[in-house]
Structures
1.
Amino acid sequence: MELTGFTLGGVIVSFLAGLLSFLSPCVLPLVPAYLGYVSGLSVAEIKSGKGTGKVVIGILFFVLGFSLIFVLMGATASAVGQFLIKNKRVLGWIAGPLLSIFGLALLGAFSYRQYAERSLLIRLVGWTIFLLVLLVPIFLFSAKAVSVWIPILYLVVVSAVAWVLNYYDVINFDFINYEAKAEVHANTANIFVSFVMGAAFALGWTPCIGPILSGILGLAAMSETLWQGMVLLFVYSLGLGVPFILSGVFAAKIFEFIRSVRGLLRSFEIISGILLILLGVLLVTGWIQQISYLLPQWELPL
């Protein structure tokens, strides 16, 4: 059995990743604002239950907008993956530590920094050191049989070097939390504006979801065909989109729900970070392939 992200397990993980993205501190608290943007209604009108149909239609096109972008991302990742899957062990050695770093970022590990002023030369040297620590062991060990502790030690060393360099502000991982601002101005909401806002939401994205999305794109890159990668990102979009749609249907109650779970948002973020670290360990050790033997396989002819 070849290592592939397109198993029943991969599909389930994609859907759950979408749910975790919706529950992240970067998205859930902003849901009322999105409902207002796509419907053109005020908070008071949404709370009163007026214009529910308008809210639902707007949020449907909003979800369609970001789903289209994510599916296209899946197609791109899968196309690149046609090359990478032939070198899946090397891919695992690279993706494993990077996903673990993303997970550590979600846990807040890289928020501890000296914020010192460093010259461009020092930063270039820092990134060179990081890339050498990341890439050199791949050429030394990934092509030969080694103890399972070697890739785990490699992952720990890469993560530790990344943390130390980040702490002394020689390099930083602020790009993980980068948010592109894309605003749509309109006096009245309509389905086109809602669709464009959804696409802008996907392209601009929000800080603590990027790492989760990266993990799913990694699964898409390991898919054997372009269509499989697109399906995985479509399922991810469903996991993110279904709660958005339910928020539109029950718009009047969404404010109360958000207040009730606000204290759990950090917990959802921690869970996401831990899952990304575990996925990184599975990739770098090759255990993800062993797990695939235990999971039912997706049988669609894609």
2.
Amino acid sequence: MRTRINYIALFALLLVNQIFAQNVTTVTANSYDISDNLDLRAVASIFGESRDLEDFERRLNDPNIQISNLDLNNDNRVDYLRVIEVAENNTHLIILQSVLGINTFQDVATIEVERDRYNNVQVQVVGDVYMYGPNYIYEPVYVSRPFIFDVFWVSSYRPYYSPWYWGYYPTYYSYWNPYPVYRYRNNIHVHINTRNTYTYVNTRNSSRAVALHNSRRANAYERQHPNNSFTSRTNLNNRYALEQNRNTYRTGGRNTSSSSRGSSSYSNSSRSNSRPATSNTVRNTNINRSSVRNTDTNSRNSSSLSRSNSTSRDSNLSRESGQSTRSSSPARTSSAPTRTSTPASTTRSSSGSSTRSSSPSQNSSRPSSSPTRTNTPSSSRTRG
């Protein structure tokens, strides 16, 4: 009996596990590119704030700032970036190399500084072709002239060459684990000086700097992974095209939502347009009703006027014939003759008959007084 209970319990447990396993959703992490781990605008920003190239290298590897998030050798430690300078006349080439092992380096980016005969200095931050694709270049325009420009052209200046290498680092440096890319993006934007301008271009200004870099380029990581270049990774020209592609994808989703909002707003506008149409119909109906009322009022006024005219005509005929006539005016106009009939009844005529006036207007009362004046002499004659 116990054995059966154990089998039933085991079967029920397996069934529950299968049910829950079907409800599990597999989440696949978004794939990011290697170039997402070093923002060249941040590199250009701290370059303009550095006193010299030694200070610039310190800022690049400061664990408190964490400008870089590169881990090319996959040892779960952010790679140390060393700085090497090559100078020739008015051209200074600063190379940023990732230290991957003993005598193993990979160029990440270069900073090309060149001064013309008018003492104008041009700076270009160029991403390595393997890391960022060809011609991924930013030209910073600093809000104030960097102090490091004045150091480059001192007569006693010597090009900087980093003394640090694999296993031998400065005391301020300590390892830190690489962040997820979205956290790195949130962190790096804080350290970009927004007062400066960072313009993307696709042509290098200094041909001399290109020649200097070709003779001193280190590409250990590229030789280890020859099929992992930027073009092979993304099927795009360079990182700028990747950024535009991402923005297009994001904007496309927003446009879709905005278009749906636009359609809803269109429907709302059609509703709002339909509402004024209804209100206009109601207003037109009210206008028609008012016009009908005005027509009825005018017809009533015209009928009353015609009735009063007919009444006045009948009263005049009754006066000429001397016979009392009764008007066929409605009850509203008959009230007026009762008022004027009072003085007519008090007068005495030679024939002993009293005339009643049935005119509704005040004009009819005035003619009615004329018979009264004519009747007065007739009464005097009968007395004599």
3.
Amino acid sequence: MLQTIRRFVIDNYLFGEEGQLGDEDSFMETGIIDSTGILELVRFLETTYGIKVTDEELIPDNLDSVSKIVSFILAKQSDSQQTPHDCSSRLPEETRP
């Protein structure tokens, strides 16, 4: 996951200049990604990892470095595995919709 995200950032924002990106480097502080670039990054993450990033989650703590993105995605995936997606199968048959 880390390498996939690194490769996306390097290819799309650093034009292949791999040596310019550390896993902890702040995208905003270093000017690697601007606010428009973050939206493109979010689309990539949602498509690649099957997650949905809400407006409330569009914060630097989640998306401002490769390492922060990896932690954010792992947390999102963990949360989605713990949340039942179809509760109707757990209801008694007579109360199912």
4.
Amino acid sequence: MKINKKKIRNPKRYLSEFKENERLRIGIKITEENKEKVEKLGFDSKMIVGEIIVPNSNISKSTYENAEGKCIIRKDLPKEIAERYWEWSWEDRGHNTYTDYKYIPYERYQREYVAPRALEFMIVEDNEKNKWVTSTEIENSQENYEDIKLSINILLSAFGECETINTNMEEPIKTVRAVKWEILRPGKQTKERIRSIIKEKVSQNRESLYIRNLDKLIENSDENIAVGTQEFKGYIVFICGKYAILESLMPNNATYILDKDWEEISKLTKTEVLNNKLHIERIYHYSNWEEKMNKYMKGGEQHGKNKE
């Protein structure tokens, strides 16, 4: 069934042609007219059959929640004290520029962070050799309605249309997964690359904060640095002694401390990492960030696992 809407709320009406528990896909045929949108979603320009991605988060609210999760404001709980970063600049009479910053404490409702669903999409061929962008196969059952709804809304936000389709397409013999991490070797070029990522991901008011934090991590990193792609875009891994420090440039996120054997953890989805609490500690970007980070940046003794 074809769907032409900005967004849907209930997927049930679009599933009438499928039996209970029948497997289906949500997809759209790739055409010359929409190839640019396929690339924007995160696929390679060659439209490789079998490539699997988590769509880029910056397309819509649906793609953001899928890749980054969402924040629920809990007005039913007591308020908490949080900190707001503030930075300002001024000139003296000699036209010398100065910058200062501070963290301002304030009361807010508590936040509950919902882990990303990280639904994947892939390029497949039908029996007539047409290429499609589709979700992975989903079973038509009520317990999967949220995933079906999100899959539909992701494609609607990217293309303005999509359709529910059966699964009689040619499955690729081998899927081609996009690499989730790119290794950067220490040096000036790495520092410049990381600063360019900061400018892309961080608001102007917080650029200096992240530059200061990441410069400290670069100084203490004793091995190659890994920059995230796909669902980990906006994440950077620094190896400091026995720890892998996973820094996030995404709003409302934090620094995660992992075991040095982070490659094994990085094979999991971000949702699996967060839900299974595979991190040693999670440190928010507040005024005490550096104080809490020092023991890890120095690569010292571990202070207990999975505190949260």
